[in-house]
Each structure stands twice: as C-alpha cells, then as structure tokens.
Write a structure and sequence with these properties.
The chain has helices spanning 10-23, 34-38, 42-48, 60-68, 84-92, 102-109, 136-144, 168-180, 192-197, 328-334, 339-344, and strands at residues 5-8, 28-32, 54-57, 75-77, 95-99, 116-123, 131-132, 149-155, 186-188, 205-206, 232-244, 249-250, 256-257, 262-267, 286-287, 290-291, 294-295, 303-306, 318-322, 351-354. The chain is of the alpha/beta class and 355 residues long. A hairpin with a 7-residue loop joins strand 17 and strand 18. The structure holds pyridoxal-5'-phosphate.
C-alpha cells in the first residue's frame, strides 16, 4: 500500500498552458518551473509543457537540470548571482541571464567568453530586484558597451496583480512603459495574475507559474473559474477507523474533543510528508467523494479526520488532501498559507507518479 502519493497530471499541465495561450495569444510563454517545478518535478513539467516557448528558473543549478534532461528551449535564470563560472556555464548551455544588480554588471564587464544573452530587470515598484526605472538609459548604455553581451529585453515583476482593484499594478505598468519607451528589446511583465487579470501586462513574453499547476493566484476567483485544472493530486490511505466515545480528546495537545460517540479516521500523511502542520481542525479532506474535516493536530506521519459523514469509508480507501475534487487553494486558506508553499514543501517521502 503506497503511503502519501502525488500524482502529476501532464494533461492538466498542458491544458493550463493552453489556457495561458488563450488569454495571451500574442505573447511568448516562458513557463516558471523554478523550485523543482513548484514541487511537481521541473523536468516532468518542462517535458509536459514542451509547447512553451521557454522556461524561467531561479538559479544556474535549476537551469542545468533542464539542460541535462535534454530540454533545449530558452531558459532564463531569474535570480542568479553572477561570477565568471556562472557566466561560462550560461554561455556553454545557452542560458539567459536576468540582470538586476550592479554587481552583475561588474562581473559581465570582466567576462571574456562566448556571447551571453541577458534580460534587464527594472524595479517598477515592487522593490525586490531590479534597477530603479530612472536608471534604464544608463543601464542600457552600460550593457551596450559589453561586447559579449546581447540584450534580449526588459523585465519587471508585479507585486499586487492578484488584487485587480488596487492601484499599484497600474502604477507599475506606467512606470515600466515610461522607462522602456523607445528602447530596443522585448518586454516581459506578467506572472500568472498578470496573465489572468491584466491584458495590458501581457507584452512580448509572459512568465506564468502557479496557474500552470492549476492554482488560482486571484483572490476573487477560484481555479475552476480561471479555467484551470489541478496538476497535482495528493492522496494518502485511511490506515485506521476508530470508534471514540463522546467527550474524549484527540491527538497531541488534546486540542479537539469528540462532541458525541463517533468514528474517527487516521490518514497516513503528516508534516513529515509536507502536509501543513498548521492546518487547523476543519481543514477539508476528501474521502470517497465526501468531505471529512481534519480534527486535532497534524502529526508527523498522520492526521485524524471526522468520519461522521463517511460511514462507508474503509481502511485502505485513499483520501485526497488536494487535487481533483478538493481545491488546493481552499486547503491553503485553511492552513494560513498559499498553494505555492504547499506544493513546494512536499518532502521526499511522498511517492511521485506521473500520468
Ligand atoms: C520574476 C518572476 N516571474 C514570474 C514568476 C511566476 O509567478 P506566478 O507563479 O505567480 O505566476 C515568479 C514567481 O514568483 C517570479 O519571481
């Protein structure tokens, strides 16, 4: 009997990419597969998304993993610090470097290897990475003076695109448009929320991540309303069904008390598998199509659920923790986090299967 299992659905990944294409038909798509494909397996995802125009990763290691697996599309490294070795590896493996800091320009100035392709990140308001927009002209001149460096284009990142009513995104778009106006090169702005809610952010290249995995980044609409399908189905078996008397407490810290004589189920997944320890009582779990709320604290290897609405559930039945029938975003909300984190923190103990 397999314990916790994550089934990765390639058809769902491909469907979600088509959804991006429908929404941004005139843009190239660089699929974000950083953090091991948001926990889905970067190579698996990149192979399933072979129709993408390129991939976005965080680091050199992540980029090389794709190359070694035979992925030959453009790969951009979004937040890789530079030194000469990184530059050499980037050139050798045709990796695109995202430049966001003066320290990188200094390394590029001393670089003497084969030609490199770079994107220039402007800070249009998020104040995380990028050159201040007022410096666009200066940075453009400095990069143009680097003989072995070719500019693919200009990039910025949106801080609040998931909340369409906020004015921040409009301000960022205006700032970026002003800073890049008249300059050569492609433009790339939109993450998933930008793809879904900000057509004016689509520009030449979109960089969706979370929506490809079937989670909605939007606060005002769920994944189904965004036309997305879950790419990960996380399941685990019911390993015990126990009758517990009224008034008894359940699990570590005795945080939940049975309101009546009732059946509780024990499911073989816990924080040792990456199920969020802070998921509170009431977090939904799906068993044979019925919601069986979590009760008591999450343990390392198991959770307990209320089986009052699942009289037919038997030991060996598989529960869904998220995926088909149970939106990962709903589980994330209960656990006080986001789907990104739930996906990324599954541990090696979870058995992965690709279908
Ligand atoms: C620079 C950049 N572009 C694109 C993405 C993809 O974002 P999302 O997963 O929200 O679509 C990220 C992810 O954090 C990012 O850092």
């Amino acid at each position: 009997m397999i314990r916790a299992q994550a089934v990765i659905d390639r058809a769902a990944l491909a469907h979600n990419l088509r959804r991006v294409r429908d929404l941004a038909p005139d843009s190239r798509v660089y699929a974000a597969v950083k953090a091991d494909g948001y926990g889905h397996g970067a190579v698996t995802v990149a192979q399933a998304l072979r129709e993408a125009d390129g991939f976005a990763v965080s680091s050199l290691d992540e980029a090389l993993q794709l190359r070694w697996a035979g992925i030959d599309k453009p790969v951009a490294m979004l937040s890789q610090q530079l030194d000469v070795t990184v530059c050499d590896q980037a050139a050798e493996n045709r990796l695109e470097i995202v430049v966001f800091h003066d320290s990188q320009l200094e390394v590029l100035a001393s670089y003497i290897g084969p030609p490199l392709t770079v994107w220039i990140t402007l800070d249009s308001g998020m104040h995380r990475l990028g050159f201040a927009s007022e410096r666009a002209g200066e940075i453009e001149r400095r990069v143009a003076a680097l003989e072995r460096v070719e500019v693919a284009g200009w990039l910025t990142h949106l801080a609040c695109a998931d909340e369409p009513s906020r004015p921040d995104t409009r301000a960022q778009l205006d700032d970026f448009a002003g800073a890049t106006s008249g300059r050569a090169g492609l433009r790339s702005i939109a993450n998933s929320a930008g793809v879904l809610a900000w057509p004016e952010a689509h520009a030449d290249v979109v960089r969706p991540g979370i929506m490809l995995y079937g989670s909605s980044p939007m606060l005002d609409r769920d994944a189904a309303r965004c036309g997305l399908e879950p790419a990960m189905h996380l399941t685990a078996p019911l390993i015990a069904r126990n009758r517990i008397a009224a008034g008894e407490t359940i699990g570590y810290g005795a945080t939940w008390r049975t309101p009546q004589d009732m059946d509780l189920g024990v499911i073989g997944i816990g924080y040792g598998d990456g199920y969020p320890r802070h998921a509170p009582s009431g977090t939904p779990v799906l068993l044979n199509g019925v919601r069986v709320p979590l009760v008591g604290r999450v343990s390392m290897d198991m959770i307990t659920v209320d089986l009052r609405d699942a009289p037919d559930a038997r030991v060996g039945d598989r529960a869904t923790l998220w995926g088909g029938g149970l939106d990962v975003d709903e589980v994330a909300r209960h656990a006080g986090t986001i789907a990104y984190e739930l996906f990324c923190r599954l541990t090696p103990r979870v058995r992965f299967e690709v279908v």
